[in-house]
Amino acid sequence: MRDVLALLGDTVSVQREPAFHIEQADDRATVAAYHALRRQVFVDEQALFTGHDLDHHDEDPRTVVLVARERAGTVVGGVRLHPATDGPDLGWWLGGRLVVAPAARGRLTAPHAALGSLDRVGPALVRAACAYAENAGVLRFDAAVQARNEAMFRRLGWHRVRAVTVADTPHVLMRRSIGRVQALANATKRDLGPLLTGLTGIPGFVGDDGVPVPGSDLVAACDAIVPSMVERDPDWAGWCSVLVNVNDLAAMGAEPVGLLDALGARDRSFASRVLAGLRRASEAYGVPVLGGHTQFGVPAALSVTALGRSAHPVPGGGGQPGHVVRLTADLAGRWRPGYAGRQWDSTTSRRTPELHAMLSSVGRARPAAAKDVSMAGIAGTLGMLAEASGCGAELDAARIARPAGTSAGDWLTCFPGFAMLTTDEPGNGTLDAGPAVSVECGRLVSGGGVALCWPDGERTEVLAGGVTGLGEA
């Protein structure tokens, strides 16, 4: 492009071109140039290593190399990032081998003035590595950096963990705070407490998935589907309107008995598409639509109320510090087309007996507390359960069951189709949920919020304090 601009005589655009750009190394020549630069700096200049600085991470196909190229195409910097463990990717990655060519460091002298702002190569590579890691679903991102670079990493939003030694040289273990879980919880649940004060009045079930109807064994639940989703994918919206409601009843240990729907649509054609999905789900789950309301000539809107029965509803706030946290989830299926990383579809391919086995699992096990995983994701929903129980929670990153090919970040923050979080005393509350996988993966603890616990003993906070502001149930 630079050559084309020069031929056209567009000198202004040529001068405005960035001095360098960051790209992923996707060919052997580029990786070799990065390795050569590392050898020049870490072996020849700094004498940190003898002969070479290569290790087994350079052979790992999961390792990602990002490089900085100046205008002429020369590689003037690079960084690598990769999963921290040799086994399954837990969402814990390491950054390292950050290198910048000597000519591209600090204030440039006249011979290199044409390169422009190459003194920003290091920070740009760090920012690019952070963006790549977060996009890849990483939830913990660490880097051991030379002590003299600590200040730069601090300016870029990293924080110091502790002093470490690498190649007999003082380094500092730095950690990038990744706020994906907190951001989702804030966007979906944070304002509920102040907004709903005085409107939730059944003691023991405040903020729950459903609510026991006083004086009866009825349990009611109600969910609205996001209008943009109704517009974009009306059939799927219809299916989900049933799915989310029967899951809410299931979390209460209630058996569903019927549904009421309220649908707004621009015309009959659009309404038929929504109702087609709702009808299929009603038939698949074996839960009849008892009635409802349909309005034409209005923007898309869909909400469904579900009624169920349980003599002894399971609360979402019945947990206590010391309780074991169990995740029961259907790992079959795939990302819903158009919602990759956000909505997992495991239910549309299930047979009715399989759906019934999953829905009845909480009612049969009767754990101390249960919540259906909502739009706040697995971690956010666990935060809601812990908040309602007056405590905090920990999740063991290595024990969280998730579908093959999904990242930790996506799985912990998506809507997973069917997933239940339950807590009980150790040894109690085992769920038999048919095709769903059920594993113990954490615990309730004193305090508040949610933290991830890692195989090396580190603990990283993903939620600070309560999620909804509704407090104890």
TrEMBL record:
Residue intervals of the N-acetyltransferase domain: 20-179
Domain of life of the source: Bacteria
Gene3D superfamilies: 3.40.630.30, PurM-like C-terminal domain, PurM-like, N-terminal domain
Protein name in the entry: AIR synthase
UniProt cross-references to CDD domains, sorted A to Z: NAT_SF
NCBIfam families found in the cross-reference section: MSMEG_0567_Cter, MSMEG_0567_GNAT
A GO BP annotation: thiamine biosynthetic process
Source organism of this protein record: Amycolatopsis acidiphila
GO molecular function, one term: thiamine-phosphate kinase activity
